[in-house]
Amino acid sequence: MITRLNNTSPLVKHIVLPPEFVNEIKGRGLIASLCLQEEVLNHSSVGGFLTHSGWNSTIESFSSSVPMLYWSFFTDQSTNCPYTCKEWGIGMEINKDVKINEVEKLVRELMEADNGKETKMNVIEWKGMAQDATSANGSSTKGLDNLASYLLS
């Protein structure tokens, strides 16, 4: 099976997946050439999101009520990850020296344990706050309107 992950990037080439892998995930996984992250996150079967903790992915995830596993690398990710995990409680951080058994443990914790359920409740709360802020009379909408008025004056 050959899958093109992103046909606009010269850095991403065709990836050849072994038939054994394709057979192993049959019925429980999907390999797609390109998909919209927001649509995936809004699908009812998604219980968690492994992300690098970039701001756009974080916003899209909590706007979809999906708790996150963060595996950050650089730039804003090193700020977003600890803040959203510790202050907001909407994700869990993967150790920099990542090991497969630790990732499995975190996935199980996120999906089954009490603190995973608390993380899910927190992300639902943040979704509500985001909806309030972006509503017609919300703080973000008013702030944007004020900025536009100022720039036009």
Automatic annotation (TrEMBL):
InterPro entries with a match to the protein in the record: UDP_glucos_trans (IPR002213)
A Pfam cross-reference name: UDPGT
Keyword DNA-binding among record annotations: no
An example molecular function term from Gene Ontology annotations: quercetin 3-O-glucosyltransferase activity
Transferase keyword on record: yes
Gene3D superfamilies the record matches: Glycogen Phosphorylase B
Keyword terms, alphabetized: Transferase
Family: Belongs to the UDP-glycosyltransferase family.
Protein name: Uncharacterized protein
Species of provenance: Rhamnella rubrinervis
